[in-house]
Amino acid sequence: MRTTDPRALDSADPLARFRDRFVPTEPGLVYLDGNSLGRPPKSAIDRVAAITETWSRRLIRGWEDGWLELPLIVGDQLAAGVLGAEPGTVAVTDSTTVNLYRVAVAALDTRTERRTVVVERSEFPTDRYIVEGLARERDLDIRWLHGDPVEGLTSDDINSCFDDDTALLILSAVNYRSAATVDIGAVTDAARAAGALVLWDLSHAAGSIPVNLTSNGVDLAVGCTYKYLNGGPGAPAFLYVRPELQDQLRPPVQGWFAQAQQFEMGPRFQRRAGIGGWLVGTPGIIALTAAQAGIEVVAEAGIDAIRAKGIALTEFAIALLDEWLAPLGCSLGAPRDPARRGAHISIRHPDARRLTRELIDRLVIPDYRAPDSIRVGLSPLSTSFEDVHRGLTTLRELLGGSG
Ligand SMILES: Cc1ncc(COP(=O)(O)O)c(C=O)c1O
Question: Which of 3, 68, 108, 278 is deepest in the core (most CB within 10 A)?
Answer without folding.
Answer: 278
